[in-house]
Amino acid sequence: DAGITQSPxxxxxxxxxxxxxxxxxxxxxxxxxxxxxxxxHGLRLIYYSAAADITDKGEVPDGYVVSRSKTENFPLxxxxxxxxxxxxxxxxxxxxxxxxxxxxxxxxxxxx
Amino acid sequence: xxxxxxxxxxxxxxxxATVAFxxxxxxxxxxxxxxxxxxxxKEPKxxxSVYSSGNEDGRFTAQLNRASQYISLLIRDSKxxxxxxxxxxxxxxxxxxxxxxLIFGAGTRLAVHP
Lengths: 112, 114
Description:
heterodimer; A: 112 residues; mainly beta; 4-stranded antiparallel sheet; 11 strands; 52% strand; B: 6-stranded mixed sheet
């Protein structure tokens, strides 16, 4: 059951490059989220989307851009990658805002 | 004060032991509570929801204390496979419309040894 998939699983890139992380879900969930997870910080919300064409900032949005032209896709773009954005990125989705979220496998991003 | 606070641990317990984690939350209007499990920075997975009357799922029991604003997770007869990080999750209500967010605690590490 691969209801929510992220790609790539691993990515290494250089400072200043643009990077896009993909997230695709097959459940037609309304809500989608992007989190980053760093040691000592737990999960931090970057951006979320309540529906197609509706997005909003989370706790740590600076340096990131999202879009949601289709319900099933929620790409996250780092416009000019910095070393501080090295992290594990998780995408999640849910049908109702305060109900459990289902997570993708994560993207391990290293910025050199 | 963090919205959701957990003891980071680690809790080191032998197989067969009973172990309990607590989690406190700051927003008295929160209505949804969950425990997630996360293995070695893999994706978090829902372990169980927490209901007002308390609920049990096999060896796992979750309880909610609204008066003191904490939830707990009890694991009986610990297995090696229970070794993981357990995340406490609470919703942050947004009364004027908009999205009702989930707030994740930083997690409590459990290590079960033979």
